């Protein structure tokens, strides 16, 4: 199975690294093209896979072609790949906000295309990705993309209409959580902890709580109750969070980012 990346930036390097280190495919079967030499060199150093200057050659040589350029660069790349991408390759796009219709309109509706919304924790193999099938993409194509994304985290299939909400939640979500970690650390510093200790404790607390949700399958509310002693410290903290509208703020953040994803999708 030959996998080719068009665009050898951060997300491509993370995905290629996951594919190779997990044994999904070998470095010999992976290649990438990029306009910039520095990006090609970094991809090659970090993954051991070959890089090329020609997007067309990468597409011709690959069974799976992964488009990993920025959304603004996508229309130009698709024009270039017209006639090269056919139903023989599986096309996978990770470009935020670019709808399946864009690929079908440009490359023809016989192509097999899957649109993915990954997130940056893919860089540390803790990604949360969702994908939607389009055109003539089959059940087998979906399983393949599921296995591919699972090398760098978890993956779920959704209808394309839900991908804007996915973008608002898990695509942009790491940034919300970084703000939460920074704020928890600030709280620790305010109460007298050294910064490096406060940040370490804050990050591990978020990681540990997330693992508890994923591993136990318990409702987050039940896990919260298990931390909260009657008349204790936690309920005092929770009351302060409720006064500050934490939950409403996070729900509004997901809604605002989803709305922006819808707007950006209409422009492309
Ligand atoms: N960073 C994030 O949080 C997320 C990013 N994405 C999507 O992933 C995609 C890639 O993002 P990053 O890896 O963060 O960007 P990046 O900027 O690190 O990588 C993009 C690469 O494409 C190359 N490139 C530009 N024009 C090209 C062309 N015509 N032909 C070949 N290569 C070309 C650039 O030189 C660059 O190395 C984007 O579409 C983005 O929307 C999706 C989810 C989350
Ligand atoms: O902020 C953005 O537009 C992209 C999409 C998801 C994460 N970053």
TrEMBL record:
GO molecular function, one term: pyrroline-5-carboxylate reductase activity
Keyword list, A-Z: Amino-acid biosynthesis, Cytoplasm, NADP, Oxidoreductase, Proline biosynthesis
InterPro entries cross-referenced by the UniProt entry: 6-PGluconate_DH-like_C_sf, NAD(P)-bd_dom_sf, P5C_Rdtase_cat_N, P5CR-like_CS, P5CR_dimer, Pyrroline-COOH_reductase
Subcellular location: Cytoplasm
Record: residues binding NADPH: 55
UniProt-listed Enzyme Commission number(s): 1.5.1.2
Gene3D superfamilies for the chain: NAD(P)-binding Rossmann-like Domain (3.40.50.720), ProC C-terminal domain-like (1.10.3730.10)
Similarity section: Belongs to the pyrroline-5-carboxylate reductase family.
Its job: Catalyzes the reduction of 1-pyrroline-5-carboxylate (PCA) to L-proline.
The protein's name: Pyrroline-5-carboxylate reductase
Organism: Gimesia panareensis
